[in-house]
Amino acid sequence: MVEGRESRRVESGPVRAPHVSYRMDDATSLLAEPGTLAVFGFDDRAAGSADPRLLRVPLETFDTSAPCELWQVDGPVEHGRDGALRWSIGGGWLFAALELDERAHGGPAGAARVAYAQLRDFIRGHEQQQVLRIWNYQGAINRGEGDAERYKLFCDGRAEGCGDWFAAGYPAATAIGHHGDPHLLQVYLLASARTGTAVENPRQTSAWRYPRQYGRTSPGFARAMRLPAEDALAISGTAAVVGHASAHEGDTVAQLDEILLNLEALLASAGMPAGFDTHAPLKAYIRHPIDAPRVRAKLQQRLPGVPVLLLHGDVCRSELLVELDGWRY
Ligand code: 3EB
Description:
By secondary structure, the chain is α+β, with helices and mostly antiparallel strands. It has a domain at 2-231: CATH 3.30.1330.10. It has helices spanning 2-11, 27-32, 108-124, 150-162, 252-269, 292-302; strands at residues 19-23, 36-41, 54-56, 68-72, 77-82, 85-90, 93-101, 130-139, 172-178, 184-192, 197-199, 224-226, 233-238, 241-242, 245-246, 282-286, 308-312, 314-315, 322-328. The strands form 4 sheets. Strands 5-6-7-10-8-9-18 form a 7-stranded mixed sheet, covered by helices on one side. Strands 11-12-13-19-16-17 form a 6-stranded mixed sheet, covered by helices on one side. Helix 3 runs parallel beside helix 4 (150-162). The longest helix has 18 residues, at 252-269. The radius of gyration is 19 Å and the shape is globular. Bound molecules: 3-(2-carboxyethyl)benzoic acid. 3-(2-carboxyethyl)benzoic acid (3EB) binds at residues 136, 173-175, 207, 219, 221, 236-237, 239, 241, 316.
């Protein structure tokens, strides 16, 4: 029965990308909308709800009234908690988030190891085993010297906790320093039952091949991920890294120009048309608050109409002053 087989294939085929948007509504009403997989509040916007789909991201915004970020999927959404881990599943997608206090895990490496091991254990029990995108927010990310810099310890622990989890290919990722509780490590991810397609950037050395000078453990992430239905590109944290070197030390605007070149090259490498549009939200992580107006002005000029959330965050190399990540539909 060719027909029956055909329709089964369609039913289990790739699912539509989550719809990601910035919304001024309060978190409670966004959680009540159909298909809400996750809601992210910045500053204090996520306070006061016990819903596991609501995450407070410890990054301050540079806007006087900050939106929430909303992830919506087709179909009903289940949610719950598993120890410290909170999760939701719907529309073929899985969201999971963990917040750990490093002091309970022997520091940054231990916390990263435990976070990734717990996420892996949780994912193992579910149909949605393909992790396509991960965000990491670490306190005081650049504190410490050389191999003892906290970000590098995080990279060590992440690799240990992952083991061979990503042996078939790394997800797209972001790792940014936050200015909240310095002991808080927050990790959240998006997974599906289907594999995506990792995309690398010809202008940049793949992160897992970075030379020794950047740390004992190369960071494991892909520059971007095409989602299974090929209807969206999840773009990793993108900084002014050319080859493996940091460019334009001390010049935020020149770094931002370099990032825009990196993003153009990445879109071309993904086989997508140039440019961003008003449906594809981006985030800009800015190290020094004094740079926020300059970054905002440049992005308004270069990416008019594109929703960009400006956040106070530290890039994982101390000489890097700004980083962008986000989506392209
Ligand atoms: C870079 O290009 C900038 O450790 O997961 C970007 C995205 C960066 C993800 C990570 C690090 C990570 O190397 C840093």
